[in-house]
Each structure stands twice: as C-alpha cells, then as structure tokens.
Design brief:
two-stranded antiparallel ribbon, alpha/beta, 11 strands, single chain, 7-stranded mixed β-sheet
C-alpha cells in the first residue's frame, strides 16, 4: 500500500483515503492521481496531508478477463499488479468478496486513520460512497431493517466494532451504485455525507446515467462533468472543482446542494464490477 505524507509535523493532520478502480492497485492509482494529490497539497497548505492508497484484497488475472485485449497483456499476466475490492457474479449480480474488500478498508481506517475524506475511482468510487455510508450515524439500524424486510446483507462485521468518525467528504470519479436490493442498506436512507460526482461525458464503461443513479442516492451531491472517458481528469478546471468542494466541506459548507445539468446518456456496458 502506498502512503504519502507532507513533511511538516507542526500543522494539523488531514488524511485522505484513496480507493483504486477495478484491475488497478494502490500504487497504480497513486501514479494516476499525482496531479490531483499535488493540487490538494498546494490548496491546503495549513495541513499536514496524508494520502493512503490501499490495494483491494482480490487479485485479478488479466488473462482471464473476457474484455481485456489479449494482444496487449503483460508477459506474466497472472503476476500483474491488478486487484479488486469485489468481483461481480454475472449470474446473480452479487458482489462476491465484498466482505474481504471492506475488511481491507476497515483495517486501513483503523491503523492509519482517522480520515477526513475519501476519493475513489470507478469500483473504488462505488466503494468510497459505501464506506461514507457505513460511517454515518444510525446506518447499522438501516442495515438491520433492510436485512429483515428485504433480505439485505448484514452490516459488515469489519465495520461493526470500528471506531471512526463520519467522513467530511467523498469524491467519486465514475462511480455507481450497487443495483441489487440486497445492498439497499447503503442507500436507504440516502447517504448524508457530502459527495462530489466527477463524470466523463464519453465514459463508456460507467455511463452518466449509471453515475446519476448513485448521485440520486446521496442527499448532498454535486456533479462535475468533463468531456472525456473513463479516467481521472488532471486539467486545472476539474482540479479546481474538486478543490472547491473539499474546501467547502472542511469549512462546514459541504451540505449545500447545487443544481446540476445532465447531458444525454452516452450508453452503458455490462462491466464486470
């Protein structure tokens, strides 16, 4: 797991959890978000910044991924640094290994926290909003109710005894909500942690409509749309948008909801996460 820290011990700590996407790792996500991390460090000079990049617990063999171009595989794909927080069962749509993913994240929260916020990409964005939900007051009661009424999953055991404050913010790049009713406890009642949803208008892996569904499950949601695909944009305009959101949240203004304009859906794919 990659962890980066700014070197001034006299300033108050500000810790941000970074959750990678499907087939990535903590190290590869760190490499793809260097511009974002550098920007946040410059934006918040009064804090000692800590960024933690854990890797998911489930290793992925790229040679077994049906959508991967086999002509571009690394020499030893079974040893590639490719991980997931869970695997989706194509038949049942169930998220297999979800408990293991949460256990890895809960251990990071316990040993490296407390964290002020979380930033995630794709599957990591879905996980980030779930984590924000799990740390909210009365979420355990919501899970118990959904488990009894709808056969929902129980509140994750790894979070049950975890002592960690509610997050101040959540940034979801190309995020999505779990569509199955068994996961309704994450979203009902709606997530109250302030969330920023960064979407690519040309994203064909997680289409805008899919991310919009997640946004609608959040009480204090804002959106930022970039004219690109499935990646974390590093242009100044989008860094500024993320920075403004984080500053608002740290200043107690995160629960101010803005109206968002949504473009037409550009399509969706049956992706494996």
């Amino acid at each position: 797991m990659a962890t980066t820290t700014s070197p001034d011990s006299k300033k108050p700590d500000l810790k941000i959890l970074m959750l990678h996407g499907f087939t990535q790792s903590g190290d590869t996500f760190h490499a793809k978000t260097r511009a974002l991390e550098k920007y946040i460090r410059k934006l918040l000079p009064t804090y000692t910044l800590h960024f933690s990049y854990p890797s998911g617990p489930h290793h992925l063999n790229l040679a077994e991924m049906p959508y991967v171009d086999k002509a571009n595989l690394p020499p030893r794909p079974e040893e590639a640094d490719t991980w997931a927080w869970w695997r989706k069962d194509d038949d049942t749509q169930e998220y297999r290994g979800l408990d293991g993913g949460f256990a890895r994240i809960a251990e990071t929260l316990r040993t490296e926290g407390p964290f002020a916020g979380v930033i995630g990409f794709s599957q990591g964005a879905a996980a980030a909003t779930m984590v924000a939900s799990l740390l909210e007051p009365k979420r355990k009661e919501a899970f118990k109710k959904k488990e009894k009424e709808q056969g929902g999953i129980p509140y994750p055991a790894s979070f049950d005894a975890l002592e960690h404050p509610e997050l101040q913010f959540c940034v979801a790049y190309s995020g999505f909500a779990a569509p199955q009713s068994m996961y309704e406890g994450f979203y009902n009642p709606r997530i109250s942690t302030p969330t920023l949803h960064v979407l690519g208008s040309l994203d064909t892996l997680v289409g805008e409509e899919r991310s919009r569904t997640l946004m609608e499950r959040c009480d204090h949601a804002r959106s930022l749309i970039h004219p690109g695909g499935h990646f974390v944009p590093s242009q100044r305009t989008y860094l500024d948008g993320v920075g403004t959101f984080i500053q608002d949240c740290l200043n107690g203004n995160g629960k101010k909801t803005n109206e968002s304009d949504w473009e037409d859906d550009v399509g969706d794919m049956n992706v494996p996460f």
